[in-house]
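Follow-up to my earlier ticket, as requested here are the two runs.
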Amino acid sequence: MSRIVVLEWSHSGQSREVTDTFVEPLILAGHTVERVKLGVDTTYPFPWTPVQFFGLFPETVLMRPPPALPVELPEGEVDLVIASGSIWYLRPCQPWQAFMDGPQASWLAGKRVLTLTTCRNMWINGWNIWIDRLRALGAQVVDRVTVTHSGPVFASFYTTVYWSVTGKREVAGLPKVEIDAATLERVRGFGATLAERLSGEGSLLSDLDTAPISHAHAFPELLFGRVVFPALATVYAALS
């Protein structure tokens, strides 16, 4: 049996639900799963006020998180680390940014990592930045599972903001903000497959469609993530 450590952050509870679903088959198969919740030296309410929500924009985009809170990291050999979190403003969420900037980040060196990302439909830019940072720390990123909201990208742009500042998942005429039951069942299936393959080498899920990509939005996401958002964040920060 394998030893798995989950480093996780969940703001609204959505990422926690996905993580619970993903690791359940691993536990049932007899693997040891240890979960470590990341934290930062600030409070993130849910739902946010509009001022709080948009106020996070410059620090998140410019990768200037608050300090990470120390966590208790397991000692000894670890077979797999599941890095679970979300994407904020086309960047890794601030608690993950803080951990990777902090003194405990060296714990990841040499460890095999699977990223478990829960977010709206535009995630590629944030995920690429995330794994670049993980690899710079010496982690071996071998797999990814990305879980996104149902509905088209244009809808999730509005509904995700509305949900974040009101706590309400439904906007008239648009898909509900949720990870639907069918998607959660797919996540459970990925966990079950992983449970069977943990003794393997290298990527364990590369033959499965574990990360839905919207190719039609890849260029806009790159443009905003690499050019527009950094420029706006720099101006915003300068004027604050």
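Run two:
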Amino acid sequence: MTSRRSISSFIGAIALAAIMLGVQPAQSFGQGDTGEHDFRLYCSNCHGEGGKGDRPKTFGLSGPAPDLTGLSERNGGVFPRERLQAIIDGREILKNHGDREMPVWGVWFKMEAEEDLGGAEGDEGTVQRRIMALIDFLETLQSP
């Protein structure tokens, strides 16, 4: 029960932080939107425009955001798509991931999908497409 309360508190804190930072939900994830678009809108504030984690320490974080350009290198030369999907989505608690300071994008994207569907449950397919598009973009950032 404590973990549910922690997750709820965390999601509330993220929503508050997003409001304070002026992040607005995307209107929809249509054909013109890409993983790069979502990265620039949501991720670059912490991870930097090039994904190197070279932004100044962001308010509320314990340290700088990770460098996303060396994910393959740190994973034995293999790009960790499945692990990234779970980390970005964030709705499932991962072992060995430590405290989560990154927003739970699965919840955020689901809320946006619900808005697009007029309050319906939300389109899980849209959530997963956005996460996969982000992962595809992150793969382009990998150092040679």
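The only thing I checked on run two: Confidence is low (pLDDT under 50) at residues 19-32. Let me know what else you need.
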